[in-house]
Amino acid sequence: MKRVTWLIAMIVVTTVGPSYSASSPKPGTPCPKQNVTKVYKGKKHTCIKAGKKLIWDKGVRATQPASAPSPTPTNTTPTSSSSNDPSLSAREQAYNLIRQAHSSSKGASSKREITIVSHPTTKQADLDEIRTRANDAISFFGADASGERLHIIVGNMAFLSWTNQELKKVQPANSSGHDEWEKWVASNVNSNNRCTAWNAGSHGFTSDGAGLISVTFEPNDCTNRRQVVWKTTVEHEVVNHLQNRWFKGRVDLMPCWLNEGQAVYYGSALGTAMNFTEFKEVLAWHKRFKREDLMSAAKRLGYGIGSSCGVEGGYEAGRLLVEQLIIEFGHVSLLNYTKSIVDTPGSDSEKWKVAFEQHFKISYDKWLEKVVPEIEKREL
Fold first, then answer.
1. What are residue 204's phi and psi, to 5 degrees?
2. Please, is 294 exposed, middle or buried when counting C-beta atoms within 10 Å of its C-beta (0-12, 13-18, 19+)?
3. What is the pLDDT of residues 201-243, one digit of tens each?
4. 222, 195 in Cβ contact below 8 A?
5. Sorting pLDDT into bands at 50, 70 and 90, what band is 314?
6. How many Cβ atoms from other residues are within 10 Å of residue 288's Cβ?
7. Using CA atoms in the order 193, 195, 201, 207, what is the torsion angle rounded to 10 degrees?
8. What's the CA gap between 31 and 20, in Å, rounded?
9. Any residues with CB less than 8 A from the CB of 42 and at least 6 apart, and which?
10. Residue from 273, 246, 248 nearest 262 by CA
């Protein structure tokens, strides 16, 4: 099953790093060495890697013992110090659950089998970034992504036919679909947006069973800086690929809001390297796509929407619902629910709803009645 994402750049981001302070580990400022800890104003801060930089995290209360790193963070319940802190917003509490799991996964990170085929015009720095991002995203999911292999094709908007041919080489059974992809992308590019657009997609599996992802950059003569949402693109597609793996190729069984909402939420958190400011900026970028009130969207974005999910509100409504599930039930519970859908008895269109009620002990519709007013008051 093929899934593609169309992204058009709208904002420019410039990041300036402050100098390192030895006396006060202010969150987001540079720190000396990964995993070094420092207690300041009642919080224990850890030096973490954010992209290519080392920065202090937001810290946890020093009176709470830190959880030991686990090689399978998705099976470990994070400490409750940050998730139940009344001084934090609901958004930051949910985000901190992901941050804690991310910190644990770093200690267990290992190199994955990632094959990258790139157009000759591709910059080496872009290839290195894609490999690092893909590896870190897979590592975050621990045992839930055990033994994962990826085949990533990195192309250029000026040479779409090259990407098409590379896709056909490793997935010949979907040749007609790749032809449609090329025509569709080409039809969306014009003289006004050629330097502000790129394409990325999760295309299912190669003929030898690896996850197939494509990333297509803007032409090389373009000099504009990529906006912050680019930092989430690879992670977003890795999540969509893992969903396909967990669903044994039947990702069509997922409700639209969960399919794209999960990819947006986790892609945003992981892609911004656990920088909460950038995370919020990415979510604000996605908010541009809101089409209707949340209750209407949540009820409509269920089974059977397919590849049009993103443009029909799945990104915005979906990530709000996914975030709420993490706030209420936690990161681990959300993943367990997701993976349970495929084996839940019932008709294809009802599996996700049946699994929802079995797992969270409340029907989806009743849950919406309870949480949508709360989400809209908080966010919309």
1. 90, -130
2. buried
3. 999 999 999 999 999 999 989 888 888 888 899 999 999 999 9
4. yes
5. confident
6. 9
7. 120
8. 6
9. 61, 62, 63
10. 246
* pLDDT bracket for residue 57 (50, 70, 90): confident
Q: Which two tokens stand for residue 114?
A: 């990632």
Radius of gyration of the chain (CA): 20
The tokens for 204 are 């299912």
| 8 Å CB contact between 54 and 34 | yes
**Domain residues of the chain, as ranges?**
3-14+110-226, 251-379
Strand 197-205 relative to strand 211-217: parallel, antiparallel, unpaired?
Answer: antiparallel
- Those residues whose C-beta lies under 8 Å from the C-beta of residue 366, and which sit 6 or more positions away, are none
Q: Cα–Cα distance between 73 and 331 in angstroms, integer?
A: 10
List own/partner pairs for 157-161 with CB under 8 A and 24 or more apart.
157/185, 157/189, 157/194, 157/197, 157/198, 157/199, 157/216, 157/217, 157/218, 157/219, 158/121, 158/219, 158/220, 159/119, 159/121, 160/185, 160/186, 160/216
CA separation for the pair 198, 238 (Å, rounded): 17
What would the DSSP string read from start to end of 19-37? PP-SS---TTSB-SSTT-E
β 211-217/149-156 pair status? parallel
DSSP 62: T
Cα(31)–Cα(267) distance, integer angstroms: 25
Please tell me whether the overall predicted TM-score, pTM, comes out greater than 0.90 for this model. Answer: no
Distance in Å from the first CA to the final CA of the chain: 33
For residues 138 and 150, is the Cβ–Cβ distance under 8 A?
yes
SS3 of residue 160 by DSSP: helix
Task: Tokens for 44, please give them.
Answer: 């224990």
Nearest to 337 by CA among 255, 268, 265: 255
Distance of CA 55 to the CA centre of its chain: 21
